[in-house]
Amino acid sequence: MPRPRPSTIWFSPERPRKPRLSRERIARAAVALLDVEGVAGLSMRRLAARLDAGTMSLYEYVAGKEDVFDLAADEAVAEIDLDIPDGMPWREALTRQLVQSRDVMRRHPWLPTLMATRPMLGPHALARSEVFHSLLVEAGLEGPRLTAAVGTLTYYVQGYAAMESTWRSRMRDSAAEAELRRRAREHLDRQRESHPTLARHTRLDDADFDGSFMLGLEIVLDGIEAGLGT
Amino acid sequence: MPRPRPSTIWFSPERPRKPRLSRERIARAAVALLDVEGVAGLSMRRLAARLDAGTMSLYEYVAGKEDVFDLAADEAVAEIDLDIPDGMPWREALTRQLVQSRDVMRRHPWLPTLMATRPMLGPHALARSEVFHSLLVEAGLEGPRLTAAVGTLTYYVQGYAAMESTWRSRMRDSAAEAELRRRAREHLDRQRESHPTLARHTRLDDADFDGSFMLGLEIVLDGIEAGLGT
DNA sequence: ACGATTTTCCGTACGTCGTACGGAAGGAGT
DNA sequence: ACTCCTTCCGTACGACGTACGGAAAATCGT
Q: Where along the sequence lies the DNA-binding region (chains A, B) (predicted)?
């Protein structure tokens, strides 16, 4: 039976010999590597190289690649500034919180995807969750309504950030591959003829990401507020 | 210069020789394989084997693995039933539409992730988008508000479906790995002591996925409705 | 009818990946 | 000094995406 490794559990137990690596160091290196190379660019070999360690050394600290992703995700979530000025009303505070979250996800475009595909149980994710819940409790929610409200906010910011970063990256590399882009565009235009509403109401080129994000956020917050009287 | 492959463009042009494969056949096989093996389990080799073809034969029809994902995603989106009874009010119609979407995403748990990480430009995704837009135009929205409203709904259903399927899959395999689960739980409980709001207001075991989904959906729809007067 | 052309099919090969395994090396405790 | 536990990591295996180029087949021009 192999030594059990913690996987997805966050503390580190006793350590009878002083180690060169640590889960924290690995987490930080993973974040840095993900920022530069993206999700597809993170490999155990590259990660180890960046830490001047042998590849297999990582496995003393980490259960596998999935564990690295868990670690990196929680590490990035830690960048969200959680403290809010005393006495700030809940709606304003939540707005700040969500704008912050989007900022962090813009710095780490790989984050929304990872958050959507794993249970976020790291300490920083839990802390963030605590803040969201307590702000909405202050607003007057509890029980399933509370859970649902937290969900809508979380899914919105994750979904928006994911969309934004895929869009931005397509815009970037299409500067080089303008040809293929032209064909795709032409194809879309052809489709548009059979989709009149879409054609009339959407512009593809201008993209006011900031304004658009705030608009959607207002919708969700309005919806939460609308349910308070019930 | 290599023969250009369409990538992400959807029609197929002239065909001077009758082919055994086709983009449609590949798309269907990819969906079936993804359903069984998940995103990580889809490989070009396995996909080809399922079609009784050599691996490299796929590349006559498909630009690469990314293209296969695009194809599979649009193919799955096709399962969403788009027609709505005549005269049904917009809110009810949208609800139907979103419940449908969630159902499809439950049948294809890999779908929400793929949708979040790529621009959905396939014919079925565009058709779905057209329906959403026209329903919200009927509701009285236009311009950036319209775009934002479509966004909130889309992100909500994708985010919820992604959460639901990761949760469900964890619940499944934890039947086998109950030990590790117990440790995770114990860890969570320890964290809960420092997160009082979270501790008081969340239950982990019971999970009324259907009801919870509807609650969140009502929030978003309420929010859209609240913005109509402005 | 038949060669030329075009298109489909796919075997081989290369570089990369995650990680199982087992050994080496280095304190800590006795 | 000896044991034991931990850290470190070289090697190796099977699987992956796909570039390349050749074989075979269908179509077309004549």
A: 43-62
